Amino acid sequence: MIEFRQVNKRFRRNHVLKDVSFDIGAGDRIALVGSNGAGKTTLIRCLLGEYRYDGGILINGRESRTQRTEILKRLGFVPQMPPPLKMGVAQLVHYASGLCGTDAEQMKVIIQTLGLDFGAIAGQSFNKLSGGQKQKVLIGIALGRECDLFVMDEPTANLDPQARQVFFKLLAERANDAAMILSSHRLTEVAALVNRVIELDAGSLVLDDRVEGTARLDAVSRCRVELSRPDEAFARTIAEWGFLNTPGGPVWQGRVYGADRLRFLGVLSRYSALIKSVHIDEIEEKLGASRSARTA
Question: How many CB atoms within 10 Å of residue 104?
């Protein structure tokens, strides 16, 4: 259980957080939203014990500021802006695993699962990696440990579609065991990942609402897209999603995870003049059945 109790934070005359109070339980996947300057980053930094504040923030009974070391061992954090670390990737992973008492191999496995060849980047400086590579390393470090809480700021911003699908599956595996806070200034970026929305405005909590009917993070849709004619731009775009061209015509087949379905349909909408038909099978893996939806 995470508790925010009348949290206030000031920077001189600027009152950034104003009596913010709410609780988070295991299984809560929270979208922390608000415009730039609403107080999201300040609240997260207070939670991480980086700032002094008035009020209380407790994680399983531990106070975030005074018991920060113990809390950070059980908290996975992925910042929006990766830190400018000059240490090698392998050194960073082993350093992080040592801090939280986790086997570094668990982190390496997740990094590999996200699509990075760990052996190829192990000796490289973290600061020299691309944005997507840095994101995958940081997600691997966060999800490769035993956690009570995951805090992620725009976690999928630099991920390619296939890595996003892996990320959703990894989150689904941890969804019932830990709480999650996903911060974004646009709800649409994280809406499919969450079951609760908390909005800040000018430092005050203005919304705390449950989200009904969210897609299962591990749901998988089989998709078949047929074009009226071949198109190179579409071929490049759909290939990024892991789709394969079916021999004999401009037909593409692949899979999309439930949390990315709206994003995928948005991509298809850019090519609506070319699309002849779209066929989607929503796979119910646990029940061994599927529902079919067809549009033309």
Answer: 16
